[in-house]
Amino acid sequence: GKHWTVNEVRALIRIWSDKNIQQQLEGTVRNKRIFEQVAARLQKCGIDRDWKQCRTKYKNLKHEYKSVKSAQDSGSTSKSMKFFHELDAILGHSTMEQASKSDNDESERPPEWTEAKSEKDSIG
């Protein structure tokens, strides 16, 4: 198919960052219907892509993001991609969020703080 322009990818990511769409994508493998919605929303922005193109682009972006992310985690800065920050906003938290599913992250303290504190108290 024809190349995705920057604006098209932006629009795709914007739709993908919709919490609703994210939850649907996380919750299912057979996601043709979701990508049909995505394609319909792109159409409203004047972007003519079918659901297959949307799904392929989504998969490619996700794959690219993951490889950049793991390169960064291993200390390499040579790998980068155009929409990393936008994707990181969507995907960067997904592993954590699945575990906690909470909306008030600010109030959560890492467990080691509370443990360390109670240990000190018990030595007393």
Automatic annotation (TrEMBL):
Record Gene3D superfamilies: Homeodomain-like (1.10.10.60)
InterPro entries: Myb_DNA-bind_4 (IPR044822)
Domain Myb/SANT-like DNA-binding: start-end pairs: 2-90
Xref: Pfam families: Myb_DNA-bind_4
Sequence segments annotated as region (Disordered): 94-124
Record's compositionally biased regions (Basic and acidic residues): 100-124
Protein name, UniProt field: ZSC29 protein
Organism: Burhinus bistriatus
Gene behind the chain: Zscan29_0
